[in-house]
């Protein structure tokens, strides 16, 4: 896969994955096409050497792995981690709001959303719905309206003269999107609208909506940007970009060495869930794969936690340490924080740099300013749970947690090449 082909396929992946459930479904489809076999946590597993497998939890997290041709305990596992969720606006359980003839939906802020960019965007709606079908069976189905169905209009500057100097956003009162106009006598429920959409998408006839997890998302698709198309803009680059990179690396590795990709949900809200990185999902999979030799396998393993980094913004260059300001299209960023907000140590960073240098590929390093707080990701959580040597790395980006983010077109492909080599490397340490 070449650079331009990589970005074209990345755009298709991003557009097909508006929610964690859709992202996992997209990954499942690609894994199965490559011969990976699905596993069920409720059943016995019989894992064979030289095969690929995957298992999901909650439909929003996935672990995929190649068993390799060698014994996993003596070889260790080359692991890559990412997360499927992104900050967004989620529909409340009883969302209907009727004001002045407008039908709106109440929303809850999920994660650390940069709120102002959500105004005046064409919004669509997608997620998972649990229904009672006409046969009396409880089942899940995915929904994606695909077209623009809502908008959060800004208040005109004539009615808010301080908007450009001191505008704040009240998440309760300012964010409910407008979805349609209705007469005063209207009694439409959101559940009725969902039933219609489900029938339209899948032909599934439902007698009742029992629950849902639905998110609004930017209806504008991912696109190349710039006079020379050196940038890529999209929603959910944090962190579907890393999910895609890890998936492609796993699919294109030789398969000789044991290798694994884990993409967890709920990173943006702390990862403490059954399917989050602070939960037991990955440990449960490794227990069943490695058995009594898991501790020895982990001691020979390494995890690369891939989550995007803050590129140095030309308008806000002073927000970075002057010696650690990553540039777009200058390579993936090794993330360092000695207070363990990132799990990188000199050993894990050295291995990445060594592989990258062998391939003739660029890399950068990020350290937050000493007078600013540092974010975190799944790396320290996975390292703490498993005791595995871990590196935190990411593609540099702008506008993190905005409804539309931006990366350089070369950095994702660079990280993919290094991770592919890492996953098929005969020795890690």
Strand content: 25-35%
Number of strands: 20
Structural class: alpha/beta
Ends distance = 28 Å
Instruction: Output the CATH homologous superfamily of the largest domain.
Output: Zn peptidases
Helix content: 25-40%
Strand order of the largest sheet: 1-2-3-13-4-14-18-16-17
Give the domain tally.
2
Identify the CATH architecture of the largest domain. Answer: 3-Layer(aba) Sandwich
CATH topology descriptor of the largest domain: Aminopeptidase
Can you characterise this structure?
This protein is of the alpha/beta class and 429 residues long. The protein has two domains: 3-86 and 235-423, Zn peptidases (Aminopeptidase, 3-Layer(aba) Sandwich); 88-218, Aminopeptidase i, Domain 2 (Roll), CATH 2.30.250. The protein is built from eleven helices and 20 strands. The strands form three sheets. It has a nine-stranded mixed β-sheet with strand order 1-2-3-13-4-14-18-16-17, with helices on both faces. Helix 9 (346-359) links the parallel strand 16 and strand 17 (364-366).
Task: Kindly summarize this structure in a few lines.
With 429 residues, the chain is α/β, with parallel strands linked by helices.
What is the topology?
Layout: H1 3-15, H2 20-33, E1 37-38, E2 52-57, E3 61-66, H3 72-75, E4 78-83, E5 88-99, E6 102-110, E7 123-133, E8 138-144, H4 163-166, E9 178-181, H5 190-202, E10 206-218, E11 223-225, E12 231-234, H6 237-252, E13 259-264, H7 281-290, H8 294-299, E14 302-306, E15 309-310, E16 333-335, H9 346-359, E17 364-366, H10 378-386, E18 389-394, E19 396-398, E20 405-408, H11 411-423
Parallel strand pairs: 1-2, 4-13, 4-14, 14-18, 15-19, 16-17
Antiparallel strand pairs: 2-3, 3-13, 5-6, 5-10, 6-9, 7-8, 7-10, 11-12, 12-20, 16-18, 19-20
Helix pairs in contact: 6-11, 9-11
EC number: 3.4.11.-
Protein name: M18 family aminopeptidase
Cofactor: Zn(2+)
